[in-house]
């Protein structure tokens, strides 16, 4: 089970941190990803974090979005900086990639 939180309304240029609580045994052995989706568009993978902490991110958010994890609490976080209007979307925590498991999502709205 994946439960996201932390979404909300933020002004352009602002920052926000999303959280995902994961209920699974051996959480520390799993990669966790963050996706986002805008109505009418395909869900997009924006970042991921490997079991050992290695991260990657999409070109559209590189240098602005940073995933982290706490294996002792089975949580992952998405630190988002310098937010833009085009970052407005529902953000999802994921395990297993496109065909895997998603949480219910949390809305992020970037607007002045």
H-E order: EEEEEEEEEEE
* pLDDT < 50 runs, ≥5 residues: none
How large is the count of helical segments?
0
How would you sum up the major sheet?
7 strands, mixed
The separation of the N and C termini measures: 34 Å
What would the average pLDDT be, to the nearest integer? 96
Radius of gyration: 13 Å
- Structural class by secondary-structure content: mainly beta
- Percent of residues in helical segments? under 10%
* Count of individual beta strands: 11
If you had to describe this structure to a student in words, what would you say it looks like?
This protein has 112 residues and is mostly beta strands. Helices cover 0% and strands 49% of the residues. The protein has no helices and 11 strands. The chain has strands at 2-5, 8-10, 16-22, 32-37, 44-49, 55-57, 65-70, 75-80, 89-95, 101-102, 106-110. The strands form 2 sheets. Strands 2, 4, 5, 6, 9, 10 and 11 form a 7-stranded mixed beta sheet that branches. A 4-stranded antiparallel beta sheet has the order 1-3-8-7, with no helix packed on it. Strand 4 (32-37) and strand 5 (44-49) form a beta hairpin. The radius of gyration is 13 Å and the shape is globular.
């Amino acid at each position: 089970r994946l439960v996201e939180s932390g979404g909300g309304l933020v002004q352009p240029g602002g920052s926000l941190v999303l959280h995902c609580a994961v209920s699974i045994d051996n959480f520390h052995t799993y990669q966790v990803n963050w996706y986002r989706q805008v109505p009418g568009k395909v869900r997009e993978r924006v970042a991921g974090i490997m079991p050992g902490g290695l991260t990657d991110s999409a070109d559209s958010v590189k240098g602005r979005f940073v995933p982290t994890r706490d294996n002792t609490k089975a949580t992952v976080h998405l630190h988002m900086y310098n937010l833009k209007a085009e970052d407005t979307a529902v953000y999802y925590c994921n395990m297993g990639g496109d065909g895997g498991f998603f949480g219910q999502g949390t809305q992020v709205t970037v607007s002045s």
